[in-house]
Design goal:
It is a single chain. It is built from 7 helices and 28 strands. The chain is mainly beta. Among the domains are: 183 residues, Sulfite Oxidase, Chain A, domain 2, CATH 3.90.420; 122 residues, Immunoglobulin-like. The strands form 8 sheets. A 5-stranded mixed beta sheet has the order 9-8-17-12-13. Strand 18 and strand 19 form a beta hairpin. The longest helix has 12 residues. The chain is globular, with a radius of gyration of 25 Å. It starts with a helix and ends with a strand.
């Protein structure tokens, strides 16, 4: 056999099978070795000849870098990122900067992160009148209303109760609102979809405190109120409060940060972030909802018939490709790993499919374990980019049978101008030059 024939035969053995159009490969290709043939060592299922990402050198360089010649910096009481990573920051949105600098949001830079847990300092923020400076020794949580005995808890007292730790995503119901615009915004993935983050939360089950107060049979709702200058409040069905609601005290192992509700916040897994009231000061058990500002003029879904749908708490099934995505740039043709995040407020993600040809064909991505309920899940699939145009998409499904839909399907459900609960399929266009842009299909 000729040398060329041997080379082609070797690549046929080593090349992972293509499972969808425009270069998508089997999801297991980067997870297990495929072959070790003809003396060629495979790395993550692909030969080094095929990957060709490392720089080959004749002899190792004898040069010693300058940081090896001097002692390093001493200890610090609290760590911080490397100065070389100072570009990894949240995108800040302040629509009323001059009049109300504390109103707005900051988005997690999803395209600059990996894994599923969001660093506490990069967790998205949404404030209505700034971040209060609360002295925990002076803060108290009141439970009252339709209860047998009203109770007042100091922060110190809350820390004496049994706690639990759970990993949950938190998503603002206005997440991805830029894509509700008539024209696709040319912003980074994080600037469009970054009002979602995921943390390990630790706190006291809300049911434990409510049951201690003793709930009147007439009680069906709970009004949760914040201690910020906006007196943020939301109406929560009692059923949710007695299910998986948490009075959170810690985030990612440390006390809540001020922008995340220090010293105590409400956490409602899978529900729109606005209902997980921060800086929690009061839980009032009532017969019905309060119909406050945040559940009448705001945080309602505008319908085609002119009505506004209220109390659409659960966040829909959703996914987004974060690598590659807008805000990044391709480094030439070759092998890449397409990676992203998927989540559902209804439960656990069971499947994520990826397309590189605008939805003409789909391939199932690998889900990174553990796949937890109401948590972000990382999905991955290998891709051979041939340098031509590509349209990348992902769609997720959950264990309740919900499947992420198209933008056309989402817009048909609502009136023009609705910006809440956007969970349509995202499309990234990759140009032959490697530029990545946001497009609508």
């Amino acid at each position: 056999m000729s040398r060329e024939g041997k080379r082609k035969g070797k690549e046929a053995i080593l090349m992972p099978p293509r499972v969808a159009g425009n270069g998508l490969l089997d999801r297991r290709a980067f997870l297990t070795g495929i072959a070790k043939a003809a003396g060629v060592v495979t790395v993550a299922g692909l030969s080094s000849d095929i990957l060709a990402t490392a720089q080959a050198i004749e002899t190792p360089s004898p040069a010693v870098p300058p940081w090896m010649k001097v002692p390093g910096k001493p200890f610090r009481g609290y760590g911080s990122p490397s100065k070389y990573e100072d570009q990894v920051k949240r995108t800040i949105f302040q629509p009323y900067k001059e009049l109300a600098p504390g109103a707005g949001a900051s988005m997690t830079p999803l395209h600059q992160l990996h894994g599923t847990i969001t660093p506490s300092g990069l967790h998205f923020e949404r404030h209505h009148n700034g971040v209060p400076d609360i002295d925990p020794s002076q803060h108290q949580l009141l439970i009252h209303g339709l209860v047998k005995r009203p109770l007042m808890f100091s922060v110190e007292a809350l820390h004496r109760y049994p706690t639990m730790s759970r990993v949950y995503f938190l998503e603002c119901s206005g997440n991805s609102f830029p894509n509700a615009a008539a024209e696709p915004p040319q912003m980074s993935c994080g600037a469009i979809h970054g009002l979602v983050s995921c943390s390990e939360w630790t706190g006291v089950p809300a049911a434990l405190l409510l049951e201690e107060a003793g709930i009147d049979p007439k009680g069906k709702w709970v009004i949760a109120e914040a201690a910020d200058a906006a007196a943020m409040n939301r109406s929560i069905p009692l059923e949710k409060m007695l299910d998986d609601a948490m009075i959170a005290l810690y985030q990612n192992g440390e006390h809540l940060r001020p922008e995340q509700g220090y010293p105590v916040r409400l956490l409602l897994p899978g529900w729109e972030g606005n209902a997980s009231v921060k800086w929690l000061r009061r839980l009032e058990v009532t017969e019905g909802p309060a119909y406050s500002r945040e559940e009448t003029s705001k945080y309602t879904d505008l319908m085609p018939d002119g009505k506004a749908r209220q109390f659409t708490f659960v966040m829909g099934v959703k996914s987004v490709i974060t690598h590659p995505s807008a805000g990044l740039h391709m480094q030439g043709p070759g092998f890449y790993e397409i990676s992203g995040l998927a989540w559902s407020g209804s439960g656990r993600i069971t499947r994520v499919e990826v397309s590189a040809d605008s939805g003409k064909s789909w391939a199932e991505a690998a889900l990174q374990e553990p796949v937890l309920s109401k948590s972000l899940v990382r999905f991955r699939i290998p891709w051979e980019w041939n340098g031509g145009p590509a349209l990348l998409q992902s769609r997720a499904a959950d264990d309740k049978g919900h499947v992420q839909g198209t933008r056309a399907l989402w817009t048909a459900q609502y009136s023009t101008g609705n910006v809440y609960h956007y969970n349509a399929i995202q499309t990234w266009r990759v140009s032959p030059e490697g530029e990545i842009t946001n497009v609508y299909l």
